[in-house]
Amino acid sequence: MPHFAPSRRSAFLVVSLLTVGVLGAPGRASAQALEELPAWTSAAVLEAHGRYAEAARALQPLAEQFPDEYVVALQLGWLLFRAEDWPAARRAYVHALKISAYTSVDARLGLGWTQLRLGRSDLARRHFEGALRDAPNNDAAREGLAAAQAAEPHAARGSAAVLMSEQLYAGHPLLRSSFALAASARALLGEHLLLGATYRRLSYDASGQTPPWDAASNGTQHQAHATVGYVNDRFALRLHGALFLDRADSNLPAYTLGVSGWFAALGDVDLELGGTFFGDALVLRALGSWDLSLAEGLWLGPVVSAQYTDDGTFGGALGARVTLHRSRYWAALTARVGDESRAVYLNDALGYATTDRTLGTVLASARADLGAGFSLAASYEWQRLSVAATTTSAAQQADAHTLTVGLTSEW
Q1: Domain with 267 in it: what CATH number?
Q2: Cα 125 to the chain's mean position, in Å?
Q3: Residue 55's Cα: distance from chain center in Å?
């Protein structure tokens, strides 16, 4: 059983120092007034006899009467936790954390243990790490962090995914469609060594949008990505390499080398820096994102990229991403505008080995837990492209629509 039980006496001491003289303020009560209220006394008696669900019900009217009272919200979360009503306990602890202006170590501990009971070890780990940042010597936070680490999916030592993508083009003078099949695997060796690999086979129809179609322009592109890295609870550092092959494309083969990292800083910060050597150009690219927590399971943050081509051309994009986590599903929406060419995403093991420039993207993605370590993944991406002039067509803009579905597994 977790040892994070909120101390009523210590909490009352803090509140009494902060709320003396505010007895008449709406939504607030002094510590002395709380101790004298029948609902509080009744809940305390029921808790002492181990009747936690009844104690929570007895305290609920008081929580509604004083919605801005931190002590009541914290105690309600504890009683609901002991009653094993994990969703309700989570709501109460989230409310207590908000009332404390996100400074309460006790509320973070309660949320951490509650998320563990709900099977969300990743969210639990963040709360325990946050508690340790504010209270580095807190034994309950250390115990909780160890439990979250032991329960996290990567402790299972492996994951794999198979994804299929169909892409359709509108207004493109050459490309009509493409189909990709990708397989990837990751393994954690020991406690910190990460290995990963992805292979993607992409077949494309470049016979043109209008008859007569030239089937000889169709082709197949092969992409291979490899990753090796060091990970721990505070940061991750990864090295990446990629190879792009296409006999029909004179600019390929192409080779990518890069480094990426992650660290916690008021949320999650991801950084990538890499270079891709094409047959006709060298493209250097940097990408960064910062996910800031807005509420329990909700993140919002910027996504920024910049690139340089050895012919002196600069490019880049600016956007934002919102992410939602719940106990059995995950969803994200990303939107970006800018001007990029031949972008390679290191952590996503994805490269656009094409001379088309990307002016804007909107990506909606989701993943649902199917149980037994399996998840269903799906995404839709819209891209606005700028197509360079050719001997037979002028420069123009086109749209690309990509639908991806697949299955992931962790063990």
Answers
A1: 2.40.160.40
A2: 14
A3: 36
